Amino acid sequence: MQTANVHIERYDPESGACRTETYSVELKENDTVLQALLRIYEERDSTLAFRHGCRGSRCGQCVLQVDGMPRLACATRARDGMTLSPLKNLPSLRDLIFDRSAVDRRISSQRLYVMPPIQAALGELSVPEAYGRLIGCLECYGCMASCPRFDWRDESFGGPYVFVRLALLHLDPRDQEDRRAQARALGVDECAGCSACRCVKGIAIRRDAIGMLLGQES
Ligand code: SF4
Ligand code: SF4
Ligand code: FES
């Protein structure tokens, strides 16, 4: 056991106040950030708000920023002195919880699902190899926090998660829309000189999604 200080950026929607609070917590070797948060919640402060679900890197619910980088809390080792904050570039609801609806709205407004409605199960069709590398996306929206261009209020730019979704649709043999044209309309050309996207699951967003939408397949 080691006593660690954990700094947490908190937000109170009732007062609009933001503050950083430091908690002292006992950490075991190999404890994750999520285990540290649960211990703080149970032993120090039950008003702390954060999300989690599967505890095994499958649901994406626990995504947050650790020292400024998007991470899954359940898959990141906790350390003394770490700073936890909600995903930037997205509106905060309370403490470490951000508002997913800011991105959810784009999925319906941009029709980011197979069009026309599914005719065949994908399992019966062959898909390009790149599809298999992208389909592991958890839809956690963590990558949106790594993008210097994305702003949830600006609908003219899709952002990394939207480009991953468009790339998956482009590679899906059932989809009949022109997803490359849609990506261009959502500003993918602005990515030409950038490679800042980071995925919490290690998906190569710049190469496998954006590069493919830009016609830069390697
Ligand atoms: S390449 Fe850069 S600008 Fe484009 S989505 Fe990724 S981080 Fe954002
Ligand atoms: S690409 Fe990665 S970071 Fe972005 S939503 Fe999917 S799993 Fe999350
Ligand atoms: S709790 Fe499900 S991915 Fe972390």
TrEMBL record:
Protein name as it appears in the record: succinate dehydrogenase
Enzyme class: oxidoreductase
EC number: 1.3.5.1
Secretion signal, residue range per the UniProt entry: none
Protein family membership: Belongs to the succinate dehydrogenase/fumarate reductase iron-sulfur protein family.
Organism listed in the record: Abyssobacteria bacterium (strain SURF_5)
GO molecular function term, any single one: metal ion binding
Domain 2Fe-2S ferredoxin-type: 4-90
Cofactor(s), names only, from the UniProt record: [3Fe-4S] cluster; [4Fe-4S] cluster; [2Fe-2S] cluster
GO biological process: respiratory electron transport chain; tricarboxylic acid cycle
InterPro entries associated with the record: 2Fe-2S_ferredoxin-like_sf, 2Fe-2S_ferredoxin-type, 4Fe4S_Fe_S_CS, Beta-grasp_dom_sf, Helical_ferredxn, SDH/FRD_Iron-Sulfur, Succ_DH/fum_Rdtase_Fe-S, Succ_DH/fum_Rdtase_N
Keyword field: 3Fe-4S, 4Fe-4S, Iron, Iron-sulfur, Metal-binding, Oxidoreductase, Tricarboxylic acid cycle
Gene3D superfamilies: 3.10.20.30, Alpha-helical ferredoxin (1.10.1060.10)
UniProt keyword Iron-sulfur, yes or no: yes
Pfam assignment, any one: Fer4_17
Record pathway: Carbohydrate metabolism; tricarboxylic acid cycle; fumarate from succinate (bacterial route): step 1/1
